Sequence to fold (642 residues):
Amino acid sequence: MYLYLASDIKLQGLQAGQSTLVCLFYGQTFGQSTAKAFCSPPPFTSIHKMDSQRELTEELRLYQSTLLQDGLKELLEEKKFIDCSLKAGDRSLPCHRLILSACSPYFREYFLSEQNEEKKKEVVLDNVDPNILDMIVKYLYSASIDLNDSNVQDIFALASRFQIPSVFTVCVSYLQKRLAVGNCLAILRLGVLLDCPRLAFSARDFVSDHFVQICKEDEFLQLAPHELISVISPDSLNVEKEELVFEAVMKWVRKDKENRVKNLGEVFDCIRFRLMPEKYFKEHVEKDDIIKSNSDLQKKVKIIKDAFAGKLPDSSKNKDKSNKGEVNGDVGDEDLLPGYLNDLPRHGMFVKDLILLVNDTAAVAYDPLENECYLAALAEQIPRNHSSIVTKQNQVYVVGGLYVEEENKDQPFQSYFFQLDSIAGEWVALPPLPSARCLFGLGESDNKIYVIAGKDLRTEESLDSVLCYDPVAIKWGEIKKLPIKVYGHATISNNGLIYCLGGKTDDKKCTNRVFVYNPKKGDWRDLAPMKVARSMFGTAIHKGKIFIAGGVTEEGLTESVEAFDLTTNKWEVLPEFPQERSSISLVTLSGSLYAIGGFAMIQLESKEFAPSEVTDIWNILCHLTKPRLSVITGSLITGRWF
Fold:
């Protein structure tokens, strides 16, 4: 099962059958183990004594380790009790046999061998960088080493060669933390080359989790056949559709067609064709020119076509079960049929649409159908009043927000930019906006992020400038300006186009103008204006129409609702929302349209009305007129808006 955002997001996380109910009020996860909390605990005094003894033991161990480390470092620096040296190139590094033997099985065996004494005094090491060796030796005496992206691979390789597990482990931990889309394949190769399962598995898991992005990298096209097979084989591959795996493989083949066609049969077996729609298989797999020209692949295509028709081949292990249609259904039957008939869904195919709600505390995914919440990520570094968006590639971004850096006298206002790593459940900092702004619109097209107009936080000037973030170049640029200066407007993206609606202009008056931007043409053009000029309202694409609800007009808060038909370029008035409200979030999810939260005038205990934040969720049905509310749980309220 997957997690989603408050505007069509898919976040990876929970597999089917592994749902976890998260209590947002207490920060605890409740499950079967909850009952253990009610068992009688050990007496407090016993626990206290155990903790004290444990702390004392740890303190003594740490003190002794520090004392020993400092002493060894001092002996090396003063060259006391030196009884050997390591010679690499033109450098000779003084050492102690005891230290080398204690830290390395390689040197222990060397010094315990029957070598003559002279050879033990000076150990000549061929093909070794003396600077790298010096760093490793100093680490053995000081437990300190300066790892960076430039030297870690050389240090790792040398530590592996001379069997120094402490340095080896430090390098593995460093590389695991540095795993990224651009380097994970290289780290995977390194882990395999140096026979380090821990690093290789970590890198392969990272590749599986981020396969959609990694298969677009140039390095993916450089994989050897056996490396490609190891990447696309796992059940844990995070893809929603098997078609993506097939397309990535064929792109890899065409990169070096002459040499790779001969390996395609083996790679072909790792693609789970029965997970594809039969129509896609006929139009893209059967008709592929490379597959059509390969007789062995044609035989497999015939078998797959028969499988789509319900006819499976006889198993060499169990012919009696050959026609029952069970593929990989039981653990014992996994090898009965060839890999290309495997119909076991990948990890990424357990998908569920959820609404992601983000504030400055946490990102919570809400399932309105099951009325369940899931903690997607903590969000303590996310500022208040930010804007969020999800791209067609299912990447979640948070931009801007109210943040004042009081220590920075020159530029106290900051507009940060974060991306959600849905696998790790963490927010990754990206280059901030070049200029701090608020009340802007946020759109996307072709995986690029657009920040449209708004207000300058420092000068409070209305803006017409449009910023564009390129995730490949990892930098912001500026494109053609919006025709007017505006803030508090709504922005929505659809089919590669970006729509900008309403807002307030330089004269602080609401506008009803609507613009559309075509990134391919690089121009803005006018569309039919809204019926009601407004700002701070909700918007979403639903069933081929742009819906807008609530907001602020010249008279104040409004409950009016409109819809714009994208095909006819016309607006229509819809039944009013049950309450005058601004800053509503509209979300389309599984064919339904939801209105979430916002601000409304609420009567206080003093009988006075004041603007207050509301946290209810409405399911919008526009063809009826009678509203109804029903409490779901805690502060979440859903209603049907007829």
In short: Residues 1-42, 319-334, 622-642 have pLDDT under 50 and may be disordered. The two ends are 31 Å apart (CA to CA).
